[in-house]
Amino acid sequence: MSTPGPPGTTGTPRREGEDDGTTTAPADLPATAPTAPSGTATPAAAPAPGGPTGVQGLLRSSTVMAAGTAVSRVLGLARSVVLVTAVAAVGTGADAFDVANRIPNIIYLLIAGGVLNAVLVPQIVRASRDPDGGQAFVDRLVTLVVVGLAAVTGLSLLAAPLLVRLYAGASGGDELLRLATAFALWVLPQIFFYGLYTVLGQVLNARGSFGPYMWAPVVNNVVSIAGLAVFIGLHGSADPEAGLASMTSGQVALLGGTATAGVVAQALVLLVPLRRLGFRWRPRLGVRGVGLRSAGTVALWTFAGILVSQAGYVVTTQVAVYGSQGAGSPLPEDAAAPPGPAVLGLAYLLYVLPHSLVAVSVVTALFTRLSGRISSGDEDGARADMSLGLRLLGVVSVLSAAGLVVLGGPVGVLLFGAGGGEDVGRTTAAMALGLPFYSALYLVQRGFYAREDGRRPFVGVAVAAATSAVLTVVVALTLPADLVVVGLGLSQSVGNVAGLVTALVLLRRRTGPFDGPRVLRLHVRVLLAAVVAGLAGWGASEGVQALLGGITGRTSALAVVLVAGAVVVVAYVLMLRATRVRELDDVLAQVRRRG
């Protein structure tokens, strides 16, 4: 599960069945991908000088990426169901496998995840203007990353027992720690292949080929599901109550090897589109004279942002635990436990889904175009792209926020059942108020990274995290236990607002005006449309609930979501038509084309 925090700082690699948040994700190539270079006229590693051209080109690339993300999420959910079946078949080994399989993600996140995603595209696009088309730069960059990842992976394997004890603690006993260590030896190589996936994907993105990076996790999930199916076929009759000692070395190898094989496939499948584009990697050692110093500076600031974000997450988690234990007041013996970290985590998964599907896809395509414009000195074009991105994100993210605010409760019950699902829904609605700001901040950060500026986006992340942390403490001191996680959702929303305002001010100082009045006018219109659509959706929800006698389970929740959701979308589109929001036509044209 991804951790809540300001966008652009988590950088979590795509795991089977899990949300990546921002990260940043990741088949056929999009229609706007550049053709492979021919002959010797263009060096093989030369990336395209920019991303997709025109609004429709941008939306086409974004649609390809969003489709890959959606398919991966569906398969990831299926993979999670199969995994539960497989692990349950061998008893309490589930905890050991979960601890081990999270370690490579955490290490990769802290060492390289967000850093690589932030710095590679601008550097590769800029190097494309070198006399050799960037061949030497890309060769040295990939070599440096591969060697570094190999070193980190090797050290992690040597330190596997220490890492397991660090993340699992001693509460599980020596037997669980031994089993988790055995799993870790199989899954820690994922660190190397997650990094390889990221660097190869960013080379593709820099060349304007966006689809493969987002579709590769589908291969991961398919491999994982197939391996887990084999495991169930071989060991499905095991006693669910069996102890840890019942898990054999063969079962450990099959489970751990399957998880790693999926990540290996996710990385290596990117070699196919790279070869089609004419990319040939020649290992070259040495970094002097290739301009990696600026990339290192951006990387350090990005890493600092990751640490700040994780520190904020620790504060949020501790307050959520505090709330789940009664927020300082003893709970009656017969009282249900207040919602805590689990509810907060599930709400975050729902909240970040529209961001992952839409914002990450649009910004990934736009990031390459921004980098190309800036490397060629076209600041006017870069400012126009920033305006376009903010307006397109506004149209979609405000609708998503309105839908989650109105339908958070029914969606929570639909997915997680009554009781806990209602808590998830309320918390999701609180988080959704900040969703448009979260997505916009993600774009603005890329505006800085395209200019090789890591310091200013760090300031935005720090302001967002600090604001959320302060409000989190206020929540802990003032709200009753059953409202603590809702208050945490609101704290995150306010933090996103503060972070975006800070980042926009800093970006304007750096680049000059970027069509602010036009962007503001559009957001006023979409906000008005969202209020009207939200009220209409709320009325429809109340009407359906009155007919059904309330939301009594998943069936009634589904009816409310379908009817009220349709009302929200239709009312929103009609309001945008009435207020002449031209960006709606671009979005609808792409929807009709894909339909």
From TrEMBL:
Domain of life of the native organism: Bacteria
Signal peptide span: none
Species of origin: Pseudokineococcus lusitanus
Membrane topology: Multi-pass membrane protein
GO process annotations (BP): lipid translocation; peptidoglycan biosynthetic process; regulation of cell shape
Biased composition annotated in UniProt, kind: Low complexity: 22-48
Protein name in the entry: Putative peptidoglycan lipid II flippase
Pfam families: MurJ (PF03023)
